[in-house]
Design goal:
With about 475 residues, the protein is of the alpha/beta class. It has two domains: about 170 residues, FAD/NAD(P)-binding domain (3-Layer(bba) Sandwich), CATH 3.50.50; about 220 residues, FAD/NAD(P)-binding domain. About 35% of the residues lie in helices and about 20% in strands. It has 14 helices and 25 strands. A five-stranded parallel β-sheet has the order 5-2-1-9-21, covered by helices on one side. Helix 2 links the parallel strand 1 and strand 2. Helix 2 packs parallel to helix 11 and helix 6 runs antiparallel to helix 7. The longest helix is centred in the C-terminal third of the chain and has 19 residues. The radius of gyration is 24 Å and the shape is globular. The termini are far apart.
Length: about 475
């Protein structure tokens, strides 16, 4: 029976070689699956496929931990600590059928079925699954890329938190009104969920905390702006949500600038397409993403935003044993999503589970099942109390206490571990009751690449 099952798996594998792994008690040759990226898609795929005795999985990720992307903005604004939304991979997969390698992919040799890592090592595979997600898209704007603050990982969140605290410290002793105004002005580029949620948390910081901790600063001098090239905030959501989001942010004292793109940022000036210039030392970039590029994948396999084009079974165009799931992939087989599924957590989670089920079916000699996306709705939260929820493809919209409870429930149950759930619930409870969190501390280690680059730039300018 075992021989027959292995033949079935091998028939699906285009490689001639087999990466053999044997269990302690059974003489079972396991096909090797290498997964690139341990985000929503990769994690959900691994957790399901690891239960299958016919496969062994090796996860490759540049971090040694999984983190919950939708709550990064709360780490960046000092309302959650990093450990509340992150968990180490090695502990997560302890005693499971999974190996972990910390590293980044240098390139892939699809002919020899080998992944080369940045540390000089390599991994052989029978099946390769890309789940590497996205990176910020600066749209080839060099001044923005060099000077703006993006938010895609824990490192970015901590960098942003340190930066925000530092500018308030500097503003508290600054006597030049022009420089002080630049320190106390924050511009957020991007009116999607990340931009709107960052803006809401900064408004809460201004309203409830800064006047207590920085009596030297008149909070009325703090100016917050959110800029987007679309005519509405939270553009993919419903018209009711568009209206509500704009109203809530305006009531929180945030300047909303729509139908306008950021065209540059240098010398403490954000330049807008409408000719307006905003003096600031802080531009937070949440205006778009692009797929993480992988050397070795042919350009004909890539679609809009650099995403890997896949069929309904998540197989990358032009390859038999390479798959892509989550934000790095794009599927256009469903009539309701001709431009691909939205780059959100739910499609990524469903992609991961779908591909794992198909690998299980393949091992049993069954045909894979085409993926069908189930839209569970969209939601965003602005500040502490304003949650907006759209369900059933925008047919149902609600906010208020029901929206807030729905947002809290979905985000809590989506956390990867009970440890994260308990920490986050406790932190949120304290923050909700006190309107405060004692997490505004600057912790420094060695200089980051961004800081080193900035220092070199300053030295060059001085020379």
């Amino acid at each position: 029976m075992e021989t027959r099952e292995n033949e079935r798996i091998s028939s699906y594998d285009s490689s001639n070689k087999s990466v053999e792994r044997r269990t302690n008690n059974l003489d079972v040759r396991k096909k090797e699956i290498v997964v690139i990226g341990g985000g929503f898609a990769g994690l959900n795929f691994i957790q399901k496929v690891a239960k299958n005795k016919w496969y062994h999985v090796t996860l490759v990720d540049k971090n040694n931990y999984n983190y919950f992307t939708p709550l990064l903005y709360q780490v960046a604004t000092g309302f959650l600590e990093p450990s509340s939304i992150s968990y180490p991979f090695r502990k997560l997969f302890r005693e499971n059928n999974v190996s972990f390698r910390m590293g980044e992919v240098e390139h892939v040799d699809t002919q020899s079925n080998r992944v080369y890592l940045s540390d000089g090592t390599n991994l052989d595979y029978n099946f390769l699954v890309f789940a590497a997600g996205t990176q910020p898209n600066f749209f080839a704007n060099e001044t923005v890329q060099k000077n703006a603050i993006a938010l895609k990982g824990i490192d970015d969140a901590l960098f942003m938190r340190n930066h925000l605290i530092r500018i308030f410290e500097e503003a508290s002793i600054e006597r030049d009104p022009v420089e002080k105004s630049k320190l106390l002005t924050i511009v957020i580029a991007g009116g999607g969920p990340t931009g709107v949620e960052v803006a809401g948390m900064l408004a809460e910081l201004k309203k409830h905390i800064l006047h207590k901790e920085y009596p030297e600063i008149d909070v009325n001098e703090i100016k917050l702006f959110i800029v987007d090239g679309a005519p509405n905030l939270l553009a993919p959501m419903s018209e009711k949500t568009h209206t509500a989001a704009s109203k809530i942010l305006t009531n929180l004292g945030i300047g909303v600038i729509l139908d306008t793109l950021v065209t540059g940022y240098e010398n403490d000036e954000v330049k807008l397409a409408n000719g307006e210039v905003i003096g600031t030392k802080t531009l937070i970039w949440a205006a778009g993403v692009t797929a993480t590029g992988i050397r070795g994948i042919k350009s004909s396999s890539l679609g809009k935003g650099g995403r890997m084009i896949t069929d309904s079974f998540h197989r990358v165009k032009g390859y038999q044993n390479i798959f892509a799931i989550g934000d790095i992939s794009i599927q256009m087989h469903e009539a309701a999503y001709p431009q691909g599924h939205p780059q959100l957590a739910q499609p990524a989670i469903q992609h991961g589970k779908s591909l794992a089920k198909n690998f299980a079916r393949i091992a049993k000699g069954k045909s894979p099942v085409p993926f069908k996306y189930f839209d569970r709705g969209e939601m965003a939260i602005i500040g502490r109390t304003h949650a907006l929820v759209d369900l059933f493809k925008h047919k149902v919209h609600f906010g208020g206490i029901m929206g807030l409870l729905s947002w809290l429930f979905i985000h809590v149950i989506s956390l990867v571990n009970y440890n994260n759930i308990i920490k986050t619930l406790y932190t949120w409870t304290v923050a909700y009751i006190t309107c405060d969190q004692p997490l505004r501390m600057i912790f420094r280690s060695s200089p980051t690449a961004r800081e080193e680059k900035q220092e070199l730039h300053e030295v060059d300018e001085a020379a």
